[in-house]
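Reading a protein record of the kind used here takes little practice once its layout is understood. An example of such a record is reproduced below.
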Amino acid sequence: MKIDSHHHFWKYDPIEYSWMNEDMGVLKRDYGPTELKKEIDEAGIDGVVSVQASQTLAETDALLDYAAKEDFIKGVVGWFPLAEENVAEVIAPYVDNQLLKGVRHVVQDEPDDRFILGEDFNRGVSRLKEFGLVYDILIYERQLAPSIEFIDRHPDLVFVLDHVAKPRIRDNAMKPWADLMRQMAERPNVYCKLSGIATEADWENWTEEQLVRYVEVAFEAFGSQRLMFGSDWPVALLAVEYQHWVAIVDDFISTLSEAEQAAIWGETAARAYKL
């Protein structure tokens, strides 16, 4: 089964999705299951994991509602107030919903690059294992070092790194990103998504060769058994069409064994998220 491990839905609201700036006009409209289904059908992808794009419980509820209605949505990574004392009470009513697979906080937008080490936040994250949930890590390269320390505080929790930690592809910068990615990959409880890569390059002038340099580092660090395909649709439309990103990944992994290709295309995601 082929899985797109990372995409978003939204009904556009300029306040709720205030992170969409003036250069992101293509994103400022509604994106829903019907449009995504057309893309995955064309790409031969069987299912998807829906990921939060707004930090509200309403967003989590909306994604779970979509998933209950659409068979191709295999799981949801939602949002919960992890730094709140009562977070376990907030999550508890959701635990019987088998479609809820993980939780994500938009750490990349926190003004303190060491936010992920905060005591209250870590207390909340420590409760996720008892609920059988994964934690998705959304960070920029500059937040990699504290994120490694964060992971070490939770050795029994499964983590999935989004967008290969958003390296500075526009600057063709490989260090310290590559070294820190290898360090993170030494933790066996961390998986990584091949997603959101083109949007870290110059949206209009990137090349496949440029992107593949970063894909190669992620593959060397994590290997096929901890690497998974993700589209980051529709955010990725800022830089690359759905089918084009599928083709880039397909070309990169074409020289791998059938087993390795199957892992990246879906088996890794299915194992990490228990799809």
